[in-house]
Queue: 4 jobs
Job 1
Amino acid sequence: MLKHTVIAVTFGTFAMTSAALAQAPDFSTVDANQDSLLTIEELASVGVPITEETFSAADTNQDGTLDKDEYSAIEL
Ligand SMILES: [Ca+2]
Ligand SMILES: [Ca+2]
């Protein structure tokens, strides 16, 4: 009985960790030059699997960078 509970908890923690890793990194982590804007190069350099199409779709004001709001709305 107790053993089953431990296995369930362990699996639950593993599932949560996997979900967290699948999410995009923090804005400040990606923003290597700390200008509060993300370029596609900054995203690529931290391993965010983003295409130019996804990037320009997320870049709602079309200034070639993602601000915090644009980045939080992104769907990877
Ligand atoms: Ca930047
Ligand atoms: Ca933008």
Note: The longest helix spans residues 2-22.
Job 2
Amino acid sequence: MTDAQRHKIKSMRFQGFGYMQIAKVTGLSRDSIRGYCVRNGLNGFAKDLITEYRIILEEEFEFELCPNCGKKIEQTKIGRKRKYCSMDCKRVWDKTHRKPYALCCDYCGKEFKSLGIKGRKYCCNDCYIKDRFWRNEDAAEVAKQILEFKKVSRLPKWLKELLM
Ligand SMILES: [Zn+2]
Ligand SMILES: [Zn+2]
């Protein structure tokens, strides 16, 4: 599988395409598309994927112009990409467009802040993947610790709800 194919799979999944359609476009087999998607957390429901995609876009998108004042943003070669022309513009924009929501992660139960996105369920991508695909492994780990009379080091939220 080439980088271009991986990129294509990702972008098509984020737009809600099914495995068959992606297989036709990329020339790969349906099974290898499915396998790749399962391993990379891309086999979810379109709605969840679109929310994830919005978050990635928000975080990685490179702006030409300051969204607040429209001035061209001067990027420096080093460090993080700037999204606003100045700290003042960032403050104004955050205040008006990126209301912070205090949310609770569906997996680890930690509180986290989400800027502008109310429906976020996980504090990070790692928790999203773990909650979707690691339930068997997590349950086995917890059971093992209990049977060895060890303190349970980490109890996912779904398991906590199941136990109590
Ligand atoms: Zn500005
Ligand atoms: Zn979390």
Note: The chain has three domains: 3-62, 65-97, 100-163.
Job 3
Amino acid sequence: MSDSHANLNKGAKDLPRCPFPVPMGWYFVDYSENLAKEEIRNVNLLDQEWVLFRGETGKVGMTDPYCPHLGAHMGHGGKVCGDNIRCPFHHWQFDSEGWNKDIPYAKVTPPICKKQPILRALPVEEKWGMIWCWYHPKGEAPKWELPSVPELEDTENHVKPHRGEWETGTAVQEIAENGVDFAHLKFLHGEKEIPPAEYSFDWPHYDVNMNNGYIVGRMHGPGLNVYRFSHEGVTATMVNYTTPMTADSSVIRMSFTHKKYEEGTKEAMIAQHLVQHMVGEADGKDSAGFESVDFIVWNHKKYRPNPLLCDGDGPIIQYRKFFSKFYEGSGYAE
Ligand code: FES
Ligand SMILES: [Fe+2]
């Protein structure tokens, strides 16, 4: 037994369940239709409070709620003015990048206001009818862009995505580890065999091909995965986006879509079946439905920093090494 495994039989009482900080990445905040013009909303995600607002022109901002002046909470009594948020206490205004735009009673604006944003603001993008934010523990600029997902962009030729949402009691690293844990697909999900898989890591991407092209997936950082399930020339797409809420809770959301096929055709039936398999409701129950099985494990497990693995396990250690780069800047290292 190696040194790192010497403690395995001492018990896990003192192990934290989820020792991770929030990893850097693009994260889903809300669907665009849920935030109206001039609306301000308090949101708790990424293990802290934020204020989310949409300006008069439609521009979205997501900032620290506590005013840099005297600390009022702008999500309680604040107002949208143009594309700025205005603090209720002394009416200082900030734009969606955190620049101070107005101090209505100051003869001389503090010089720092001209030099840099003074309110922490996250980069925000709206894509596929969704609001996304970029999070980095030190506030650094995005390290990668949101990808193109043609199935969500070409709405004319694809069915309106079917959406799902699940709350779970674990961290995003643990959820994403499922994507490399091929053995659990047989034992927890009830697949007939452990699927053959090819994979590669190229930070911030992880690519996987399971069952010889049946499932082809790509992870774009911790907050977004695109999986395509194909059968007899028909492909259905599962876009999976997870938002860390607190250190040990996350919300998993998914959008499922495929090309529009005439009702009753063989293609339409295959597409429907693929979507059912993705959601976990396939006939014959060779898929058990991830919410009923993965969650039982995720919501109660503890993270083993030095797991005891065997030769049939997927590339768990490689994955963890790859994932640790998303914590750069957070001071966390395994
Ligand atoms: S505390 Fe916000 S303007 Fe004074
Ligand atoms: Fe799973």
Note: The longest helix spans residues 266-279.
Job 4
Amino acid sequence: KKCDHDKKKNNISMAILYHSSSPTLLLTDLCLSVLFYSQRVEVRPRMACPFSVVVAIDFGTTSSGYAFSFTQDSEAIHMMKRWEGGDPGVANQKSPTCLLLTPDLRFHSFGFAARDFYHDLDPEEARHWLYFDKFKMKIHSTSDLTMETELEAVNGRRVRAIEVFAHALRFFREHALKEVKDQSSSVLEGEEIRWVITVPAVWRQPAKQFMREAAYLAGLVSPDCPEQLLIALEPEAASIYCRKLRLHQVIDLSLTEGEDLTSDTVCGFASDDFLRRSRHSRTFLVESGTGELWSELQTGDRYIVADCGGGTVDLTVHQIEQPQGTLKELYKASGGPYGAVGVDLAFEAMLCQIFGEDFIQTFKAKRPAAWVDLTIAFEARKRTAAPGRANALNISLPFSFIDFYKRHKGQSVEAALRRSNMNIVKWSSQGMLRLTQEAMNELFQPTITNIVKHIEELMAKPEVRGVRFLFLVGGFAESPMLQKAVQKALGRTCRIIIPHDVGLTILKGAVLFGLDPTVVRVRRCPLTYGVGVLNRFIDGRHPRDKLLIKDGREWCTDILDRFVCVDQSVALGEVVRRSYTPARMGQRKIIINIYCSTTDDITYISDPGVRKCGTITLDLPEPLPPPGAVGGAGAGAERREIRATMQFGDTEIKVTAVDVMSNRSVRASIDFLSN
Ligand SMILES: Nc1ncnc2c1ncn2[C@@H]1O[C@H](COP(=O)(O)OP(=O)(O)OP(=O)(O)O)[C@@H](O)[C@H]1O
Ligand SMILES: [Mg+2]
């Protein structure tokens, strides 16, 4: 309230600190504070892992899981115990990301258990239960994500998204804790566990913070110990693991000179046998150094990791720094919503085309269980789709689909199919849709084209040109359709490598990241970040419409003071420092708006493409009375200087602050969720 009042009364504060030759004022909505430049770079020493266990959670769009490792025995990574269920025709190592809440909003179940229970509910009763699946996508697609953002359950009821995520994380927490405790000889305290949650590298700051808040809500860690939780980037985690790979742990899709694409043997996992064997064991051993795959590597060689998941395809470009084996990011993370669910959506669109969109929507709403059945059937078939396949893929339509259609439309499913002129989909008398090879191609093609196009575009960037390896990871990388398409497009440009157990590379890498988060030593900024400031107005340089006269002085307003630029390399531990001074005596809070942009050619916060994306809050403690203090805020020597230190080289942006005079640390927080 008080600040609001001040804001109206005194839009621009008068406090100016002539610290540097060109005085700069900070432009804030709430209170105005002075700022002067001081930017320094320092590199943090490597820290030994102070935790005894690392538990990583891969929270996927379609499937999720966890893995852990004891720091005493960090070369062994243990995969989660399968706690229930499975699907016919689908070998899953993670659990489906499905959550079921009771009609009174309590947690009921997660994973196969949630899906199967929901499926078996009486349709009347099911309408009261809240079933969520594929809900991770919403976090990326929501542009104004906040703590209040809601998710819609299948029955249409809405719940705060943060609650949904917290329920799921709580479930993982309980399972992981139990399993870790079972395997540990000593008594484990909660604070001995470091948690890692993976998110797509293309997620923006609000989404990463959202995941963190959900983890706090779930009780994974306390907000007082933020460093106990790490947010890992999915392709980055995969890359950390890939650098450990040995030759027998990969499939190489590269095409050698003279080789053509007529044979399909390279696709479809020649080493199925190996996969089956390794799936029996839930413990994986990793190399202590860099794997032998890299023996032919030369200093400076670059590689791309493409995480082809259910929701997103996420790419990262790395270089291994020898001899330490640390990683350097060479180009900002890129990717998009081209995950394998694109194929599922194409199938749904095809059903709409045949049976009518209104019918499909009604069917989904009225017969949710049958819809789940249909999607399970499709999932199994989708996984067997391969480019060289001659015969059609059969997908059985649930009886209730056939029956519902007849009652709703007064005609048979078969008639609908005939009328739709869909020659590539046939009807089998055994109640099955027969998708021809052509139909399957059509379902996969848009998604696969997007992926290949994206990788090609990335490879054309100067920083990326000449990469030696392309690693395909994530569940979708198991698809022979995708493998073949990537091989065809890029098999002669670089070596295409698919690690065994591709679906688990992210989890394994996330555990390695938790054991040593300093392994990625340099990252690229995904965006330009800065704050709005006022500078001395210079005629001829600044436009007149930015002129602001205050107390006889001329200021240029709206200038963006850049902290970091898009695609800038930032080393771990490198910091950006700015000092701020409260404009008024007794001011207890400084709130600073952060702006971001996808480009770097910006001067003013009012330039096109610049958005306010978050705030930094500095909570000022009661100032210690300086000996014999007199005078107000402008009294030079007594002016408080709050030094804010911001880090952009981690997976999340961090801020800390100190009150310089008393050398006390100041509560500093950065918030991207309240816009
Ligand atoms: N053989 C296969 N053919 C086609 N698609 C496959 C195959 N195996 C797995 N998939 C697809 O891969 C996806 C699962 O991959 P993964 O577990 O890496 O995704 P996720 O982690 O849930 O998603 P994201 O990382 O995007 O949040 C599913 O959509 C699944 O249908
Ligand atoms: Mg994933």
Note: The pocket of adenosine-5'-triphosphate (ligand 1) is lined by residues 60-63, 94, 136, 234, 309-312, 339-341, 379, 382-383, 474-476, 478-479, 503 (CB under 6 Å).
